Structure formats: C-alpha cells, structure tokens
C-alpha cells in the first residue's frame, strides 16, 4: 500500500511539473503574440507613413520646391530694390541743401531763457505711485 501511495505521489508530482511547463509555455506564447501584435502595429504605422510621404512627394516635386524658392528670392530682391529706391530718393543737390541748412542752424546764436535762481520745492510723495508701462519696441521688417 505504501508503494502504491509513493507511485501515486510520484505520478502527481510529474503531472504538476508537466502542467507548470505547459503554463510557462502558454505564458511565453501569449507574450510572443502580444509582441508580434505590437510589431504589426508598428509596421502598419510605417506603411501608412511611407504612403503619406509618397503622396507628399507627388504633390511637391523637387522642381516645384526649387521654383518656389526662386520666386521667393526674386520677391526679396525686388523688395530690396524698392527699399533702396525709397531710401535713396534724395539727390546730391537735396543732400547739399540739407547740409547747408544744418550748418546755418548750428551756427546761429540762440537765446536761451533765464534759469530761475530759486530752490526747487520739495516734492511730496503720492499715496499710490503710477507705474510706467514699458513701451513696445519697433522691429525692422525684413
């Protein structure tokens, strides 16, 4: 009877080992399947991205991009020429007349008002000082 019980115990231990191996194999298979599903999603994403890039390449060829860049450079050059014309609208005669007028103004004796000799009154600080807001800076257009 003891031998029969030992054989039965041995058989159940072997069955448990086989079951544990099968469970670990199943867990490994589930992990492999999940990883494969993720790989499939990545591959699909790459495929869709590649299709989008191909469509964009069909819409925007290299010649088209070069044409747009050339047009932009032409427009910038045209704007620069306009700026030069506007800035250089004074002739040499105009510049000479301006310099003469400036010299005449700087050489004139100007009468300045008399400075008061009384001391300045002391200023009483206000209860709520007014904060100065910073003025926005102007930026050159380019």
UniProtKB/TrEMBL annotation:
GO biological process: late endosome to vacuole transport via multivesicular body sorting pathway; protein transport; vesicle budding from membrane
InterPro entries linked: Snf7_fam (IPR005024)
Subcellular location: Endosome membrane
Annotated keywords: Coiled coil, Endosome, Membrane, Protein transport, Transport
Residues covered by region (Disordered): 109-142
Coiled-coil residues: 9-36
A GO cellular component annotation in the UniProt record: ESCRT III complex
Family affiliation: Belongs to the SNF7 family.
Name this polypeptide is given: CHMP6 protein
């Amino acid at each position: 009877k003891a031998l029969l019980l030992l054989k039965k115990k041995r058989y159940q231990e072997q069955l448990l080992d086989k079951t544990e191996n099968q469970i670990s194999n199943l867990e490994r298979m589930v992990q492999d399947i999940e990883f494969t599903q993720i790989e499939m999603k990545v591959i699909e994403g790459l495929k869709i991205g590649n299709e989008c890039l191909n469509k964009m390449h069909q819409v925007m060829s290299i010649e088209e991009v070069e044409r747009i860049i050339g047009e932009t450079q032409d427009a910038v050059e045209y704007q620069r020429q306009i700026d030069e014309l506007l800035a250089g609208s004074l002739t040499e005669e105009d510049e000479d007349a301006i310099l003469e007028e400036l010299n005449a103004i700087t050489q004139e004796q100007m009468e300045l008002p008399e400075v008061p000799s009384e001391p300045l009154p002391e200023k009483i600080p206000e209860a709520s000082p007014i904060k100065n807001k910073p003025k926005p800076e102007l930026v050159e257009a380019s």
